[in-house]
């Protein structure tokens, strides 16, 4: 019989084994003892991976795991609520950013998409028509309950209906339609259990936009995480989104004021009654290189009557600017890259190159704060690596065309702080990939 003891916190690459009859060539043995030591990646190690990693790959994996571990330890020591964030592309093949959430008692773990433009959270439940194979099973939780039609929360969801005594609702999310029952259960983020958290239990969905394991709403509405945890987190949070290519939970969602950076510049949050959940800011100009491009003021102006303006959104992938603003930025970008270079297109991107280019910076000018994007936040590369594109586009020519969206690719490797009580958003550079 073998008994394996790991001392990974002290000696990361060594494991000890109490064994009988182990080949002495495989380990270093203390005379008079049966304690034997061997390298985790040695040919004799029972922990040797089936597909050997290069030294560089193994070190990078260890470093990423250390980073997540340190986030957890920091949250325990400082009593801070820090939730690791990962790129959904690498883990669940979804273009969203995800966090682990434990739901119910005993807990069931799901990977929820972060969405700061959505209020109510919702997850697929057992028996859901059109949902993925990963779902929450209400019958396994002893703290689960339905929300009554007569509860105040039932009036806070879109299109509420009553089938019997339970509150149900339906909504449109991107190209998807969602039908759900309003329920309550304990939701745990980081080390904080949130008993009686209200969310949607999806019973049916169509389309392809619904995040496969559900969504965590970080908007400003009545059923959002901010509102339901106001006493705990004081309507304050920040996130750092890692690169799309990051393989681990290296980003972080920090909840509450005590976890936030102290040296960060802010711009005022604007309130729009027509779209009260969205995080509006005043974008008054855009600089490409050292030149502020000529954008007609109405293209950037905040208008609470029509809903026009600029928002920060964690769910949109690429920044969209209304056409006059985008054309001005794009044309100056092309001029600075080189007027003689051939420009191609790739999907929805209209400014692409098949040769290496020198990339000018792009700076968003807000009241009280400038955000300058480095190359990694400006360019997207084709899978083959032969084509490079400006990772922005014109807003669709429809009802949403009045809205400029600072999207998640342009937010990657930045700390974005939402301080709702003081009505402000802060941004600072932070590598978290």
From TrEMBL:
<protein>
    <recommendedName>
        <fullName>Peptidase A1 domain-containing protein</fullName>
    </recommendedName>
</protein>
<comment type="similarity">
    <text>Belongs to the peptidase A1 family.</text>
</comment>
<keyword id="KW-0325">Glycoprotein</keyword>
<dbReference type="GO" id="GO:0004190">
    <property type="term" value="F:aspartic-type endopeptidase activity"/>
</dbReference>
<feature type="active site">
    <location>
        <position position="115"/>
    </location>
</feature>
<dbReference type="InterPro" id="IPR032861">
    <property type="entry name" value="TAXi_N"/>
</dbReference>
<dbReference type="InterPro" id="IPR032799">
    <property type="entry name" value="TAXi_C"/>
</dbReference>
<dbReference type="Pfam" id="PF14541">
    <property type="entry name" value="TAXi_C"/>
</dbReference>
<dbReference type="InterPro" id="IPR033121">
    <property type="entry name" value="PEPTIDASE_A1"/>
</dbReference>
<feature type="active site">
    <location>
        <position position="313"/>
    </location>
</feature>
<keyword id="KW-0378">Hydrolase</keyword>
<dbReference type="GO" id="GO:0006508">
    <property type="term" value="P:proteolysis"/>
</dbReference>
<dbReference type="InterPro" id="IPR001461">
    <property type="entry name" value="Aspartic_peptidase_A1"/>
</dbReference>
<feature type="signal peptide">
    <location>
        <begin position="1"/>
        <end position="21"/>
    </location>
</feature>
<keyword id="KW-1015">Disulfide bond</keyword>
<keyword id="KW-0732">Signal</keyword>
<feature type="domain" description="Peptidase A1">
    <location>
        <begin position="97"/>
        <end position="428"/>
    </location>
</feature>
<dbReference type="InterPro" id="IPR021109">
    <property type="entry name" value="Peptidase_aspartic_dom_sf"/>
</dbReference>
<keyword id="KW-0064">Aspartyl protease</keyword>
<dbReference type="Pfam" id="PF14543">
    <property type="entry name" value="TAXi_N"/>
</dbReference>
<keyword id="KW-0645">Protease</keyword>
């Amino acid at each position: 019989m073998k008994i394996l003891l790991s001392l990974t916190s002290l000696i990361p690459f060594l494991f000890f084994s109490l064994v009988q009859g182990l080949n002495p060539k495989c380990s270093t043995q203390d005379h008079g003892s049966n304690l034997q030591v061997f390298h985790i990646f040695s040919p004799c190690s029972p922990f040797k991976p089936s597909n050997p990693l290069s030294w560089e790959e193994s070190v990078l994996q260890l470093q990423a795991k250390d980073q997540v571990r340190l986030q957890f330890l920091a949250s325990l020591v400082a009593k801070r609520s820090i939730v690791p964030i990962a790129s959904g592309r690498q883990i669940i093949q979804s273009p969203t950013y995800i966090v682990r959430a434990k739901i119910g008692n005993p807990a069931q773990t799901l990977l929820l998409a972060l969405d700061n433009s959505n209020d109510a959270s919702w997850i697929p439940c057992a028996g859901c028509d059109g949902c993925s194979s990963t779902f929450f099973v209400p019958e396994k939780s002893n703290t689960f309950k339905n929300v009554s039609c007569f509860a105040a929360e039932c009036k806070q969801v879109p299109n509420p209906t009553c089938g019997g005594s339970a509150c149900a609702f339906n909504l449109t999310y991107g190209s998807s339609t969602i039908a759900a029952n309003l329920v309550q259960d304990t939701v745990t983020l980081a080390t904080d259990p949130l008993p009686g958290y209200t969310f949607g239990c999806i019973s049916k969905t169509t389309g392809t936009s619904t995040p496969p394991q559900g969504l965590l709403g970080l908007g400003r509405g009545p059923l959002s995480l901010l509102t339901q945890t106001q006493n705990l987190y004081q309507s304050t949070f920040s996130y750092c989104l890692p690169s799309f290519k990051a393989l681990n939970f290296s980003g972080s969602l920090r909840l509450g004021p005590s976890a936030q950076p102290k040296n960060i510049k802010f711009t005022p949050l604007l309130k729009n009654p027509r779209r009260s959940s969205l995080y509006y800011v005043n974008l008054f100009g855009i600089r490409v290189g050292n030149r502020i491009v000529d954008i007609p003021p109405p293209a950037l102006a905040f208008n609470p009557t029509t809903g026009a303006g600029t928002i920060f959104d964690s769910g949109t992938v690429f920044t969209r600017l209304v056409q006059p603003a985008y054309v001005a930025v794009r044309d100056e970008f092309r001029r600075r890259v080189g007027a003689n270079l051939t420009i191609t297109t790739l999907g929805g991107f209209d400014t692409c190159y098949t040769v290496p280019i020198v990339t000018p910076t792009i700076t968003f000018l807000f009241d009280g704060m400038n955000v300058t994007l480095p190359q990694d936040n400006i360019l997207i590369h084709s899978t083959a690596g032969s084509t490079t594109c400006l990772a922005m586009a014109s807003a669709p020519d429809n009802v949403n065309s009045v809205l400029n969206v600072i999207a998640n690719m342009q937010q990657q490797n930045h700390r974005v702080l939402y301080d709702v009580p003081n009505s402000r958003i802060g941004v600072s550079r932070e590598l978290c990939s």
